[in-house]
Design brief:
2 copies of one chain form a homodimer. Chain A is α+β, with helices and mostly antiparallel strands. Chain A contains 15 helices and 17 strands. In chain A, the strands form 4 sheets. In chain A, strands 12-14-13-16-17-15 form a 6-stranded antiparallel beta sheet, with helices on both faces. A 5-stranded antiparallel beta sheet of chain A has the order 5-6-10-8-9. In chain A, strand 16 and strand 17 form a beta hairpin. The longest helix of chain A has 23 residues. The two termini of chain A are 39 Å apart. Chains A and B meet through strand 8, strand 9, helix 7, helix 10 and strand 17 of A and strand 8, strand 9, helix 7, helix 10 and strand 17 of B.
Chain lengths: 524, 524
């Protein structure tokens, strides 16, 4: 794994690829320097002095090894990657624990509680919101990164109920391979799926690739098991229940601040046998939005209903004539999908959408989309290494508020990019759609000034987040709160709910050791 | 409204209807007396002495009127109706408040907090689990029933996002009538829909008539507004969010113990224009279960997928030859449903189901089903008045555990009915189905002994609930916890979740005045 950028270092674009990328970027930013910045050799990275040593209580699975500390300092936010490239690892944890059992995790929590050490659960390390960074108040005697990768097995499969008991440290490919041996798949494919883990999806309520119905990991969870300093919070395996507030819904979104998720029973499905898709172009973005809304409200439940604005469509190679593009797809393990795609396409055509090729049966929707989707994080890292400010943010809002929110966000980000960087590009897609509203996802790109990247980014981020909040959006549809979104989350969240959450935190984590700074602060 | 039985007194079966019912019951229970027991005249009902008087702070909307106290003593559980028929109103609240504004509700909470008076939110009074009964510990100086019926308006409609802001005290017919004026419907039709309210659905996570996808009111909630002694807990209108644990999920299931729900934004839909249904008979219950499971796992998402065992099918007039019956139905405001019903029917036929008439387009599924569904609560009251032990309970479990749970429940209840009543009938249906399991719903019927009904009922209830819990079920899929299910809920719920919930309760309701005894006890 790259210590600063996305994914595996040997998959990172090589010199020729970077030069090609720079040429494409220069079409938009003629003045940009675009000189690739090489990562520093590991020995030149700057780490803080150790505050604590690995204790005998955790012997055998806890280290203060320099490489381990480097690998557990950051997630993959823009801020993380810029600091990584600079060699700034000031937030490195003192210790990294790699437990293989729940007993070892319990030992970690016990030792941390007794010694005022912050414990920061770590899955794939792909947080884009500062969710795994040991930015902790001085009252702690140190920080421990609790890496769950040692728990990565599918422990049990129930083919009748179509559910599997999976350990939290399993990454997407690792759990899918084990499920595939039994003919099943979880089909939760966030953009981070190569590296991210089941626990890393549940804790921050990650979004997957389904555009409707099963949009978040929440919808695939049958039951959860979380170790807390107060004991094991395990819910019963149930398809549904009406017995009090749903305990899984406290675990989902807990972001490592209430406990350490160790395993979950997940709803799985056979691999799809039938697929149908269509790529629909719209000259007018508003018409495309209306089409997406009508499909979302139709009860057809497409697996894909992604809307790309003209810039996104061009950048993703889906369209080059200034059209917005709606990608529709259905998948099923049970039945052919012609009536479904026909009706969805008719709805889109009713709003002026053009689909000359008609619906097609395909293994994945829209040509190069899937490849581009999974390579996007590498692309972001490559752009950062070329000195570009390149980041994304996402929200959700009602259809009624969309026009106003969208216009305000575009204005605010465009203006902030102008102030901070002399101008930039903003593009939009809908990643998920609901009967009552879409989840717009924004990408922005501009040349950064070496040394000033974090301040430039902060100015744009603030403008974007303020606009989202002011116009009825949520600070995050599926990227989580972490440390980056915390100020806006605090504004979005009702006071009494904060009080209830703080009380729950104190009950489950009385020493306040779990991921301090994320989600909620312990009671004073 | 009847002060003891279901619904409106003038809709209660008359003498001839009761004699007809008695004749039908005697087919099964030859020895049963079946003498209709008349309700006592209101002046003979026994109420406890008032502990407190209506205070000046609540002048104009708070009363200690005897009729109001009677009408707010009970829900509609078997225990409630038996006690009502006996004239036993020992649990009557001292006061009944009928606020028309949130300010008045806030005044109630403030006054109750300052005076140690228990405040018990009351919607339609249809709880079947003791959720509205003032069975409170002696530390309280009295009890106030907080009736929300004065808040029953649809306040706002957003036709673009298909959502409506509705006050919590609106009953099903009252809110549907207001929505219909704009061409929309909520389509949440629990069996209690004539009398129950929006707040009374949200607080206990009520189940509606949809058999898949939108099974609970949870799935129709866009945002909620709840008054707590700590202030207003209002969530943002969002189609979805990933920002921390979902606040609505703390409100859903709070059962009046965390706050008073005053309004919610609800997802609405145009009335269905297309319908398709099929009634499929199975000689073997196991085959019918397999068919229901395959349909639930097909991704077809029928609006109805009710399985009736042979006894239920007979009692509901759907089949008289000992067959189990699967009722399938689809509805849509967008598209014709032939491909959907054809595939679902093919699945059912693949398991040996017979459907000689084939799929039909109909306004409601399966002939007399809907009428029988809505009249069932009157029927239960009539049976109770004839001296019968007549009650239902429900659960949910994985498909894998179903056979074992179902056999154990039938054994336990049959044996308990034999011990308590000399024998009885148990029937089963699935009200809702999920990819990973069904929600079985049981009805039991036996002759009771006058004066011993509550003990007989308790023996059967305990056997049923113990069996459900022991074999992987939940104590309730959609009837809530209330006071009746509390002992089993405490066993079902993980200890650390109870600790978190208790802490949240103390944070939101520091004086512990809200619906004491339900869900969770305040911290000591």
């Amino acid at each position: 794994r790259s210590y600063w950028g996305w994914g595996w270092a040997d998959k990172f674009p090589d010199g020729a690829a970077l030069r090609g990328l720079a040429e494409r970027v220069r079409l938009f930013f003629q003045q940009a320097e675009l000189v690739p910045r090489a990562a520093l050799p590991p020995e030149q990275l700057r780490l803080p002095r150790l505050r604590i040593e690995p204790p005998p209580a955790l012997a055998g699975f806890c280290t203060s090894d320099r490489d381990a500390r480097i690998a557990h300092t950051y997630g993959k936010s823009y801020r993380d990657q810029v600091r990584g490239l600079r060699g700034d690892f000031a937030a490195a944890p003192d210790l990294v624990a790699l437990p293989k059992t729940e007993d070892q995790i319990a030992s970690v929590l016990e030792w941390c509680g007794a010694n005022d050490v912050a414990a920061i659960p770590f899955g794939g390390g792909t947080s884009v919101v500062g969710g795994v960074e040991a930015a902790i108040p001085p009252r702690y005697s140190g920080a421990l990164s609790l890496d769950l990768r040692g728990l990565d097995r599918v422990l049990e499969l129930d083919p009748v109920s179509r559910a599997a008991r999976i350990q939290a440290g399993a990454t997407g490919p690792v759990l899918e391979e084990q499920l595939a041996a039994h003919g099943f798949t979880l089909r939760h494919f966030p953009q981070s799926v190569e590296c991210s883990t089941l626990g890393g999806w549940i804790a921050p309520r990650a979004g997957g690739h389904y555009a409707t119905l099963y949009t978040h990991i929440d919808d695939l969870v049958e039951s959860t098991r979380m170790l807390t300093p107060r004991g094991v919070l395990e819910s019963r395996r149930l398809p549904a229940s009406g017995a009090g507030p749903n305990p899984d819904r406290l675990v989902l979104g807990s972001e490592g601040a209430l406990g350490v998720i160790t395993e979950a029973w997940m709803r799985v499905t056979p691999r799809p046998r039938f697929r149908a898709g269509a790529t629909v172009a719209f000259a007018d973005f508003g018409n495309a939005v209306a089409a997406a809304r009508d499909v979302a409200q139709s009860g057809l439940h497409p697996s894909n209903c992604r809307l790309l604005d003209a810039t996104e469509a061009m950048m993703n190679g889906v369209s080059h004539d200034g059209s917005s593009v709606l990608l529709l797809a259905f998948e099923s393990a049970d039945h052919a999908l012609d009536p479904w795609i026909s009706r969805a396409l008719a709805i889109a055509q009713g709003h002026g959408g053009a689909c000359p090729e008609g619906p097609v049966a395909k293994s994945e929707s829209a040509g190069g989309w899937r490849k581009a989707f999974l390579e996007a994080p590498y692309l972001q890292s490559a752009l950062i290494s070329l000195g570009m400010l390149a980041d994304t943010f996402e929200t959700a809002c009602t259809w009624q508020r969309l026009d106003e929110l969208h216009a305000a966000v575009l204005d605010a980000v465009t203006e902030a990019l102008r102030r901070a960087c002399g101008g930039g590009i903003v593009s939009t897609r809908f990643t998920h759609v609901y009967p009552d509203g879409p989840a717009p996802y924004y990408t922005f790109l501009a040349p950064a000034r070496a040394g000033a990247e974090l301040e430039q980014w902060a100015e744009v981020k603030q403008a974007a987040a303020d606009a989202v909040l002011a116009h009825g959006g949520t600070i995050t549809h599926h990227h989580a709160v972490g440390r980056i979104h915390r100020p806006w989350y605090d504004r979005e969240r009702a006071g009494p709910f904060a009080a209830a959450l703080r009380a729950a935190k104190s009950a489950l984590d009385p020493h306040g050791i779990l991921n301090p700074g994320v989600l909620i602060d312990p009671a004073d």
